[in-house]
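Q: A reviewer asked whether we had any structural model of the full assembly, not just the individual parts. We don't, so I'm hoping you can provide one. Inputs are below.
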Amino acid sequence: MNKKIFALLSVLMIASLALAACGGGAKKVEVFSWWTGGGEAAGLDAMIKIFNAKYPSVEFINAAVAGGAGTNARAVLATRLQAGDPPDSWQGHAGQELIGTYVAGKQIQPLNDLYEAEGWLDVMPETLIPLISQDGNIYSVPVNIHRANVMWYNPKVLADNGVAVPTTMDEWLAAMDTLKAAGVTPLALGEQWTKLHLMETVLLGSLGADKYNGLWDGSTDWGSAEVTAALENYAKVLTYTNSDSTSLSWQDAAQLVINGDAAFNVMGDWAAGYFIELGKTAMTDYGWAPVPGTVGVFQFLSDSFVLAVGAPNEEAAMDWLKVAGSKEGQEAFNPVKGSICARTDCDKSLFGEYLQSAMDDWSSNVVVGSLTHGVVANDSWKSEIDTALGLFIQDGDLAKFQAALVAACAASGPCK
Ligand code: GAL
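A: Here is a predicted structure for the entire assembly that you could use as a starting point for your response.
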């Protein structure tokens, strides 16, 4: 070979190696979530598998940050957004979290054309669209519907102690008295956000659906005697919990029930995904019922994915969103994740016993939204409530707590 051609070829080879090394031209997409374990990662993996099969030339970067309910992940995301370094797509809850934060901050793009092209307006529930829309623009792709107000229980622990599954607040408190007297931990609880989660379900169980909804639209007075009574129920319920809750994740707390170390745990139905992952059997290893006082009410939340303004890989992000909204993607994801499809056309037979019952309830119950998981309150209101709760957990001063909740509604909610 002529020396000149050899030199030229060498230069070209070095240049192409250098290009490959720094990833130039390679297609990728970065997707941000908090699904790193306990059934959640497995659900996401199932959807990634479909993405990889459909788009083999695109590298999927799974930028998940550990921590239930996104407490850590959302802080990391906020820092990245502030620094102008958004992931292409991230997990956000339908409702006020999406509208009050990302849409208000002009951080995400409308997806109306995608909805049109994919025919999603015909298959996504009508009730969900307003919760992901503003001024006629649709801003996210919901992948699921989760239920927050689920009380998981250990059937053997209840049977051994002669306790029937409680359906009312009074029955629940009585059952927990019996269990406590028998030396059983009545209610498993975890870190702070799980306490907020428990609180919203007890508020719902004590106030009923209409008054609970009123907390979020200003028609229920946070300072009223009925809210005092609901908070008293909550304070009472807390007395039946394990003393090491602060150091337990939601999976740790759920595990106490599965292991027979506690009778009940209030947690969203991602716990069903965790139990499936642990190889547990429905109605033998674990049972479920609506949180006492909430029979006939489905307290929902929905995980959805967005498209960043300034997404570095917009085309691949759209491919990801297509998978997230597809029947195939949702049928792979949800039975593992422990949620039901956001889409209305998924095949019911793919889902286990718990999720089939959740589908029936979702279509027949009164539907209300979750606080902890972004539906009913914007981020600032939610964090004021959470701060007040943290203080209450420390000092137990219920009057002060209620006053702080009244102030939070006036500062960031509709109680102006
Ligand atoms: C919720 C989320 C669920 C699940 C849960 C626990 O906020 O919507 O999908 O991830 O947190 O981490």
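A: Points you may want to mention in the reply: The radius of gyration is 23 Å. Residues 27-146+301-367 form a domain with the D-Maltodextrin-Binding Protein; domain 2 fold (CATH 3.40.190.10).
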